[in-house]
Amino acid sequence: MAMLFFCSDCGFETTKWSGKCPSCGSWGTLRESTRVTGKTPKGGQADPNTPKPERITEIKYSEVSRTPTRTGEFDLVIGGGIVSGMVVLIGGEPGIGKSTLMLQLSQWMGSQGKKVLYVSGEESQEQLHLRSLRLNVASENIWLLCTNDAEHVLSIVEEHKPDILIVDSIQSVSVPSLDSLPGSITQLRESCNRLLRCAKTQRLPLFLVGHVTKEGFVAGPKIIEHMVDTVLYFEGELRGQYKILRAVKNRFGSTNEIGIFEMTNSGLEEVKDPNHIFLNDEASHNGSAIGCVMEGSRSFIVEVQALATTSNYGTPQRVVVGLEQKKLALLLAILEKNLALYLRSSDVFINLAGGIKSLDPCLDLAILAAIISSLKDKPLPEKSVFIGEVGLNGEVRPVTQIDARINAAAKLGYEKIFISGHAKTKQKSRVVKLRDVRELYSVLERD
Q1: What angle do CA 210, 140, 99 make, to 5 degrees?
Q2: Helix, coil or strand: residue 41
Q3: What are the backbone angles phi and psi of residue 385, rounded to the nearest 5°?
Q4: Domains 66-272 and 276-446 fall in the same CATH topology
Q5: I want to staple 354 with a disulfide (CB 3.0 to 4.6 A). Which of 84, 278, 326, 349 is the partner?
Q6: Measured in whole angstroms, how far is the alpha carbon of residue 270 from the centre of its chain?
Q7: Are 110 and 140 in contact, with CB atoms under 8 Å apart?
């Protein structure tokens, strides 16, 4: 084994330590690690099993077969079903429900006759059994293995030949032959590499549960996320009942899809109609506007809440929940520039109801409408939706997939849909086109 230094952000390797990573420029990310060096073949003879290059036109291709879990929200996120040999990494805050999701996944697949090997390096069999009773997980095709030895896991896989392998968590599994602590960069890299090689050679679907850092990213070297096929994040408030499963990387499907689950006493249940989560069924309130966001192929009607009050301190507060902090600063500057609204002495709070997080620029128009409503202490027109991106000069820009957003709003009974004047849409009856924020302000004042 040879000593080297490993960047925990980008995976860059070097034999010399420095305070700044030469590759990505991050400070203080180089960690001491060990490299496992193997022996070179004697006589310089190549391995007969070494793959050789082929013409891309001559490669034999077979359609990718997927095994659905029969849970619509989970299948949507991973691309339609489980693919043989796929490696999935699931991260999330402690207590968010990662182990609960994996145990329920075992039940979903076990009920279809699939043999599932659930490896836990953090809990005992008694703990898992008690949880399975609460979650009604009782399939005879689920096998539990409590160990921290990655080599032992591979030997059990070779012996029992499971159809699906779940490891909870990858930080708790280690290779005994390596002289480093479990959870270290060396152990994470080697354990993940050996499990991944086993999954690819045996066409075995592998699900890895990963811890996250205080910044919310999967703990360990970034190379782990590069090695796996799919990276999922389980999000939501720890004490909230709704959880969001989001794909940030997926080699077998879209990376923009999200699945919404409800945490109940008997485990996670899929939410088939997510729109009611993000909406308030009561009458319109001051500072409340309706927008529409796209996550992959799905559109969600969401409620944007704004509160503008006189500041009691020298510096006004700018608080954003569910949206980007810098976005609010841009939109407030647009209001002050184009509408001559004085906001420098007002505290402004923005919240995206329902616990969802979104960076979709189509919410710009809804945020401005909510702020204007709160400033004027006047509710917005009933049954209205605001869809549009706002430029720095105050112009309302068109957004992508406008017809899908309009159809989603129309299905829920919204009568006025405010969009950009430059947007091209087939809908005519309910659409109100706006060229800039001045027209938005005049429409809201008139109504």
Answers
A1: 20
A2: coil
A3: -130, 140
A4: no
A5: 278
A6: 16
A7: yes
SS3 for 215? Answer: coil
Query: 66-272 architecture in CATH?
Result: 3-Layer(aba) Sandwich (3.40)
Among 3-7, 76-80, 346-350, 376-380, the least confident range:
3-7
Say what the pLDDT of residue 119 is. 96
Distances (CA, A) of 246 to 110, 231, 233, 307, 435: 24, 9, 5, 29, 34
Strand partners for 210: 91
Question: Residues 303, 265: contact at Cβ < 8 Å?
Answer: no
CATH of 276-446, one of 3.30.230.10, 3.20.20.190, 3.40.50.620, 3.30.420.10: 3.30.230.10
pLDDT band, residue 437 (cuts 50/70/90): very high
193: its two tokens: 């590499």
pLDDT band, residue 363 (cuts 50/70/90): very high
Q: Domain extents for the chain?
A: 1-38, 66-272, 276-446
Residue bearing the bigger pLDDT, 48 or 270: 270
